[in-house]
């Protein structure tokens, strides 16, 4: 069981990192450049994609926490893992609700400027990328 947990502790942060990089830093900005994609359509797609991403991230976080418990991971691992989970929680519980309310308004036809919540979400994504790399390095076999 420990061998599986050890492999998960390295593999899952890298999987999580790949998902964040692919969706947040590649798919999201590019979708608005695609022909025929309106702001409303892009926001609708984004809501679905980010809900799925955050769900997948939550599952990965739970599995990583379980693997860390099974392994009796040292404090450094818990710090990096706690930071990753903490960033995700802030994004989902603090930043996404205002973004959702804003996208509801835009989808209802209001013209709104870009919100500062977008910048917070992007900043937290950058932090998450660094933290996931740190986690993978500290648990590397």
Oligomeric grouping of the chains? single chain
How many distinct beta strands? 0
The ordered H/E elements are HHHH
Number of helices: 4
Secondary-structure-based class equals mainly alpha
Shape label: elongated
Residue stretches low in confidence (pLDDT < 50, at least 5 long) are: none
Distance between the termini: 16 Å
Q: What is the residue-mean pLDDT, rounded to a whole number?
A: 94
Level of helix content? over 70%
The biggest sheet amounts to: none
Radius of gyration over alpha carbons?
17 Å
The tally of structural domains comes to 1
Walk me through the structure.
The protein has one domain (2-139). The chain contains four helices and no strands. The longest helix has 33 residues, at 39-71. The chain starts with a helix and ends with a helix. It has helices spanning 2-31, 39-71, 75-107, 116-139. With 141 residues, it is mainly α.
Please write out the topology.
Elements: H1 2-31, H2 39-71, H3 75-107, H4 116-139
Describe this structure in a few short sentences.
The chain is mainly α.
List keywords for this structure.
elongated; membrane; Transmembrane protein; 141 residues; mainly alpha; 0% strand; transmembrane; transmembrane helix
């Amino acid at each position: 069981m420990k061998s599986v947990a050890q492999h998960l502790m390295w593999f899952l942060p890298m999987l999580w990192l790949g998902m964040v990089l692919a969706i947040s830093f590649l798919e999201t900005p590019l979708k608005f450049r695609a022909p025929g994609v309106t702001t409303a359509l892009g926001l609708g797609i984004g809501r679905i994609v980010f809900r799925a991403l955050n769900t997948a991230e939550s599952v990965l976080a739970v599995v990583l926490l379980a693997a860390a418990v099974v392994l009796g991971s040292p404090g450094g691992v818990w710090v990096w893992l706690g930071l990753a989970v903490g960033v995700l929680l802030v994004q989902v519980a603090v930043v996404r609700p205002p973004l959702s309310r804003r996208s509801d308004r835009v989808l209802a036809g209001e013209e709104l400027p870009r919100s500062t919540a977008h910048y917070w979400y992007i900043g937290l994504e950058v932090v998450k990328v660094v933290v996931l790399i740190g986690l993978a390095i500290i648990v590397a076999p």
